[in-house]
Fold each of these.
Amino acid sequence: METRVVELDEHFFRHESGRIVAALTRVFGVHNLAMAEDVAQDAFCRALEVWKLRGLPANPSAWLMATARNRAIDILRRERTARTFAPELGRFLESEWTLAPVVHELLGPPAIRDDELRMMFSCCHPRLGEPAQVALILNILCGFSVDEVAAAFFSGRAAIEKRIARAKKTLAGSKKLFELTAANFPARLSAVHRALYLLFNEGYHGASSESAIRIDLCREAIRLAGVLRRDPLASTPATLALEALMCLHAARLPGRLDSAGDLNSFFDQDRAAWDIELVAEGRRLLDLSATGSELTEYHLEAGIAAVHADASCAEETDWQRIVQLYEMLLAIRPSPVIALNRAIAIAQQNGPDRGLKEIRAIEGLDRLAAYPFYPAALGELEMRNGHPQIAHDHFRVALALARSPMERRFLERRIVACHNQRR
Amino acid sequence: MSEFLYLYRGGDSASSPEEMQQSMQKWVAWMKQLGDHGHLKSIGNPLEPTGKVVRGKQKAVTDGPFAEAKDLIGGYTLIEAKDLDEAAELAKGCPHFDTGGDVEVRPIMQINM
């Protein structure tokens, strides 16, 4: 028996699915998105049937694409009189002289890279809300099934199915995939940044209790940010800063959860568990992003994460620098959550009393009413102030607002800590 | 040692790429295990889900599918085992059951002349 040495990359099928659907959509036209998805699905089923018995081919990626390509050529031949495909390819697909060569070229590696980008930009259509954009990116480009997207968002299957179906209808209703040479490229690129940022945050802070799913989301966001970076047009300072911030945050993921999979307080994190390679990559990208005149919120957030990565422990952190960066961030994006983080950093530097005063002075504090980490921050500072009873009450309020089992367990442990301090 | 044919019947196709990858990895591991223990005579082949049936004295030709999806044979593998019981026991490790399929185990007839 010959044993194959070829091994599939983790999530190979997911990533290939995104690439193949994007490439086929380019050939069939965005109005035939569903057809592209069917052909990709067929190619995958076929691959599975053959590979499970015969083992992996030498180049699984090329095998899949060739299977999808042959099927695509069949469909184009059979239906070219009954259907319209990508309008800009019309003439080439009509003639038998050009059909196969054009499809070969469009489903070849250089073209596919652009297709993946084009699809990413198309998913961020301004007519779609941000949650729909993120769901669409996960479903089409990251190959997540509806169930997997629902699990990632800690949301009901029916709601997610509806959201994705509606978003696909909007996408299929647009005339064609987004062209990277379009005049509105910069605006759309910002929308893509925002969607990838949300995708990453869903993984990092999200409500899904399964840590494996959350890590997957973070990795997908980093992967897609890398796709942007490798494109000369999309590789702007903001793109680099966004990827830097993702790397620097993701580096902390292993320390963020304890051995039972529960949330650790930032101050209790085991910094030895941080991923030093990701920290180094984040730093490198942050350095590269420091060109041009544009200072984005991604630069500032990455800057904050880099200061944390520089410190050997919470006490050694340059809190003054962090407060400054939060203040710059507030100037770009005023938000009570950022103001809360600034107040916590001030408390680190100037003591809990000062921190509590800063929290009370936050503009739009009422908008934090449902945010569990607002009462939790009050609780932390009161505890440090030696008021475990008051802290306890704040943590109880926070517990009632907790959005996931993980947050609940974290806050329950803080309540126990209050009890212990009172004794 | 005797030879047996595994016929893989029915089974749902995986719905998401991640499920496919997991299914794929289980199959590869199972095949490797059969091979490592000297049970794998021939990995066999998958079968197309389409086909034709030629039936009766009239030799009428009809298009497939010729069975319910749950009865459709999706592929076969030739294995070696001590006896039918061992062959059936080995089949229990097949990932095909995860997707609701069956494995039919048939002894290859021994002809000693």
Amino acid sequence: MKYLCLIYSDEAEFPKMPKAEADKWMSEYAEFTDRITKSGHYLGGNRLHPTQAATTLRIRNGKLSTTDGPFAETKEQLGGYYLIEARDLNDALQVASRIPGARHGSVEVRPVVDRP
Amino acid sequence: MSEDAADRARERVDAVYRSDSRRVLATLIRLLGDFDLAEEALHDAFTAAVERWPLEGVPANPRAWLVSAGRFKAIDGLRRRARFDASLAHLAQRLDADSAGAPRGWEEDDEGVEDDRLRLIFTCCHPALPPDAQVALTLREVCGLTTEEIAHAFLTAASTVAQRIVRAKGKIRDAGIPYQLPSRADLPDRLASVLHVIYLVFNEGYSASAGASLTRPDLSGEAIRLGRLLVELLPEPEAFGLLALMLLHESRRVARTSPTGELVLLDDQDRALWSREQIAEGQALVERALSSRRFGPYTLQAAIAAVHADAPRAAATDWAQIVGLYDVLARADPSPVVELNRAAAVAMRDGPSAGLALIDALLARGDLADYHLAHSARADLLRRLGKTAEARAAYEVALKLTRQAPERRFLERRLRELPS
């Protein structure tokens, strides 16, 4: 089964981090990605720009409207994701529990709908 | 077959349903990979038994017969429906192939069947499911209660319970919650979730959160049955601890309410009414759990209950030992409620003002401001210190916070008894 692991954290924290700590953080991510690639779990993943770069759009009555920022203001924001292949939810949770962001923010694990 | 033998066969079907339907269901879920399919298959298997056992005689191994019949009916049903839905054809084929490839004798393998029951418990109590769904699913699938029985026990609408169960099964399917025993690394966490569900069921039965009656014995009985099943399948120290805790509390049930349904506090209970049998069993289980040295909060709470059970009169209670056990518990599982209970024990060991100081400090932190038992415990200490006006105010706060009729009457009685 495929699962999308959505990594949420307070995006204001990262820029405040001293450089040495931020570097360590990035290398932990690189190590994690490497590890789940070797284990065959990795399908894809990316870090996202902060929500100030986000634009939300909706079409109502045929009219497009765009607004600056994310869909909802929350304490933690979506900052990145992994798409993984896992045997079942237990396996997916095992993988997700090793995402470095889980120790600071939170990781939402969502099963992907299987297309026959 | 004679009429008599046919009657006996029908009686056997009923008896096997009561003793084994949950085991058969647990195995069918593994074989069919789906809760709803397995429940339908279970129903079909027992329908077949009602038809055939009176004619053909009761099979030598009724459980294996039922599992085979259920699996056959499920695959057959899928094939029939597959004429209209091609995706089912694939499923039917896979199930058929799976069972052909299964090792011989899986139906007879008792250990495998016991593992299925444990798989069912761990799946129903999976932490990815919401707690109220874990409780409903466990009572329905593991205990075999009907949706209506669960709704009645929890004073909710049957439709609410039914929806919780449907959603939980949907999540098991869609999120891919596996029908598996947890890995060794996950076991402590997963076991904690199972124990918590059993404890929730017990507590709802032992001190119903709302309503006219103080307790609902059916739920406590169900929780104790679950606890026994768990220690039989998975002899972990905390599982023994929880079973001990439930038995030691349950031993006081009769003494805990007066014949008119009024609440009787531990100190005032007629200890001759305590069930010595349950106490003896509970104490033996506590000792077993403590000797493992891998025990946790349930075992410690059970040990405290065991010290109470040892005292022939309330005045003979070993409060020093109880305070000591609360000290360990507060370190193992810190919570404001544990601190409140510890404060009450300190009041018994060192006098009411020592306990009052601790409760006041707790309330000042705001943790238990809405907890009626914190205010009634405080009121009680104030009463014993002769501070009548303050005691009255505290009893009134407690009264405002409790929804349970017998507890309310108890507090009202205490208020009336205060000297004016």
